[in-house]
Structures are given as C-alpha cells and as structure tokens.
Write a structure and sequence with these properties.
It contains ten helices and 22 strands. The chain is α+β, with helices and mostly antiparallel strands. The chain has two domains: about 100 residues, NE0471 N-terminal domain-like (2-Layer Sandwich); about 260 residues, Clavaminate synthase-like (Double-stranded beta-helix), CATH 3.60.130.10. It has a six-stranded mixed beta sheet with strand order 7-8-19-11-22-9. Strands 10-20-13-18 form a four-stranded antiparallel beta sheet. A three-stranded antiparallel beta sheet has the order 1-2-3. The radius of gyration is 26 Å and the shape is elongated. Bound molecules: fe (ii) ion (FE2).
Length: about 375
C-alpha cells in the first residue's frame, strides 16, 4: 500500500477525527460525515443509501477507534454501532484535499484553427461501436471539445440508434426522433428550408435544452449546404476577457426564447440568459437562436447596453476567427454539444441535388455518466 493510504496517527477533536497520513497529508473527518458514510449505510445491491442521518443524535462520536493497514474501525456512542472504513476509500474521499484543489475545467476551447486538427476528432463508425477503446475516446472527445465527426455510418435503418443505445437514453422532442432535416413545402422550421441558417443552438425555448445533437448525413449532393460550427464557450471567454461589462449583461439578464409555429398547439416560452455560468465560474450553457428569439423585455435603463452586448456577441459568433466550415458527406455523423457548440449551414440549391440529414438528441448528463462509468471513477 502506498504511503498515501497509510495512517500514522489519529487525534480525536471536538467534532472530527484528525487523520495524519504517511505522506504527511492531514484529513479532517467529521463524526456526522463518518457515521453518514459508514459502508453499512448503503444497500449492497442497489447501492442506494438506506441509513438516515435523522436516526442518530447530532452529538454522535466515536468512543473507540483503531486502524490497521487497510481498515479504520470506529465504535459509535450510539446504538453500539461499529463502522469499518476502507482506508483507500477514506483517503480518496478526503474532502480536506478535494477542497484544496483548484477547479480545472473539463473543456478545451477552440477557434478557427481547430479545422486543421479535425482529423483528431474524426472517428470511424465500426470502430466506435465495436471497440471500447474507441468508444471511450469518442465520448471523451465530445465532452472535452464538444464536437466530433463519425464517418462511414450506414445510411439505412436509423443506424445512429445503435450509438445512442451504447450511451443511454435519447432525448425526445416534439420534432420526433429522428427529426428530418430536409427542405419540405410549408416548413414549420427554418431548418426545413434550403435557406442559410445562422449559427445557433437548438431548442432554447425548453427549460432543459437537449444536450448533444447528432446530425446523420444521408445525402448531401446539393450545391452549397456547408456546415458551420463555433465553440460558444470560446467566444464567451473572448467576451469575458475583452469586455467584462458586456459579458455580465449576457450572463445576468434573461431573454425570451419562443416557439409557436403553425403546427403547434403549445406556446413554448423560456426566459434564460444567453450565457450561463456555473458556481465555479466555468461555462455551462449557451442559448442563442435567431429564429427562436422572442421579444426582449428588459428594464429600459439597460436595454441599449444589452443590445450592444448582444450584437457584439452575435457578431463574434459568426466571426471567421472562431468559425469552422466543412461539408458533411453521406455516412457522416456531426456530433456536438448543443448547449455549447453553435451550428449552422450555408444555403443550398435544392435543384442541384438532394440534401437530407436525420437528427437525434441525447442529454449531456447521459454522456457524462457513461464517461464516469468507462473511467471507473471511485465514489
Ligand atoms: Fe439546428
């Protein structure tokens, strides 16, 4: 056993045990935390917590403790309960240590030069579905960069479902799964025309916006119809570094996104900031979609400044310094984090050939939980 997992000494303090490890690290384990996390607190099969903290007094404390090379044994002041903690588990869950570590973003931001490395995020369908190593690499890629392309996917039998099933449950929406991206008469969405689509995230009028989007190209023989992509987190970061006031306007104030197309018997409305950050000041979500933009109803005192920020950000989201452009081929799946990466397309000429994509959504949390499983993270 490494020094890291060996105990040298333990002091009992007022509310916690102070554990001195052989690598000189000192952990604090509060009595309530220890009792709450006794291995017997969890059902052996469901792995769900069955112990309730309400069942013990608040002043519970260990009346006896001893340790070996592998186990810390505590006898509690209540119920004669005995807990045995695996030292490796205890150290790996040391919250003194976890809170000393600086937060590291899981995201790698990118700009226009990313196109030069596109082969590093390009995968082969058979290799992804048949080899765990490649599947894991692909999942890791879409999580880290927010984007990947899978090539040589069969264009029959909705073959993308095979990939979705390897991850988890797909996300249904009122567009159906898969949704068809093809120009149709009397369209209920701009995507179903031959027009250019400015860079956008899909479905911002949902309270919980669908996470990853997979666009499976069946045929793309029309003139035009190039795909575009922009890392919304990278552009947000540019804004933050260059104009913090504009950045704050877009993170602190909500705008209305809406959908009420003529086929709907629902009016979907959602008020949300365009840029959402989490409590670590990292990026969580970008919502932006010209077609789904409602009528902004902010305070008159900030309307001018807000519009300036919104226009500036929207311009950067189409700036050639940030955007990449590529043409999808039959059998390609364009995979991206719809809550991070904006996508768009140039217009195409429907008389010059066919263009047909099928779209699927799956939540970000499905992707992350699969990655946790593949990485065998210890909890
Ligand atoms: Fe879209």
């Amino acid at each position: 056993m490494q020094d890291k997992y060996k105990i040298n000494k333990i002091n009992k303090q007022n509310k916690y045990l102070e554990v001195f490890w052989s690598d000189n690290h000192i952990s604090k384990y509060h009595f309530l935390w220890l009792r709450d996390n006794c291995p017997s607190a969890f059902h052996k099969d469901t792995r769900m917590r069955k112990f309730s903290i309400l069942s013990v007094p608040n002043d519970i404390n260990p009346i006896k403790f001893n340790y070996s090379d592998e186990i810390l044994k505590l006898k509690w002041s209540s119920e004669n309960h005995i807990s045995n903690y695996d030292l490796k588990w205890l150290r790996n869950n040391c919250y003194t240590e976890k809170n000393l570590k600086k937060y590291e973003s899981p995201y790698k931001l990118w700009d226009k030069d990313f196109i030069n490395n596109i082969k590093n995020v390009t995968f082969d369908y058979e290799e992804v579905i048949s080899e765990d190593k490649n599947f894991k690499k692909w999942i890791n890629t879409i999580y880290t960069y927010g984007i990947a392309i899978i090539k040589n996917t069969p264009t029959k039998n909705k073959s993308v479902f095979k990939i979705l099933e390897l991850i988890g449950c797909y996300r249904e929406t009122f567009f159906g799964t898969p949704f068809e991206v093809i120009n149709i008469p009397k369209p209920n969405n701009q995507a179903y025309t031959a027009d250019a689509l400015t860079n956008h995230t899909d479905l911002p009028y949902y309270e919980y916006v669908p996470g990853y989007q997979f666009l499976h190209c069946l045929i793309n023989e029309a003139e035009g119809g190039y795909s575009t992509a922009v890392d919304g987190f990278a552009v947000s970061n540019f804004l933050k570094l260059n104009d913090i006031n504009k950045f704050k306007l877009l993170t602190n104030h909500g705008v209305i996104f809406k959908d009420n197309d003529y086929t709907q018997k629902n009016i979907r409305l959602q008020k949300s900031p365009i840029i959402k950050i989490n409590n670590k000041d990292d990026y969580e979500e970008i919502r932006i979609n010209l077609g789904a933009m409602g009528t902004i109803d902010l305070e008159p005192s900030i309307m001018s400044d807000f519009y300036e920020a919104y226009i500036y950000f929207y311009k950067q989201l189409h700036d050639e310094n940030f955007q990449i452009e590529f043409k999808l081929k039959s059998g390609d799946i364009f995979c991206f984090d719809n809550r991070r990466i904006l996508h768009g397309r140039t217009k195409f000429d429907p008389n010059s050939g066919n263009r047909h994509l099928k779209g699927y959504y799956i939540e970000r949390e499905e992707v992350i939980s699969k990655l946790n499983y593949l990485n065998d993270i210890k909890i």
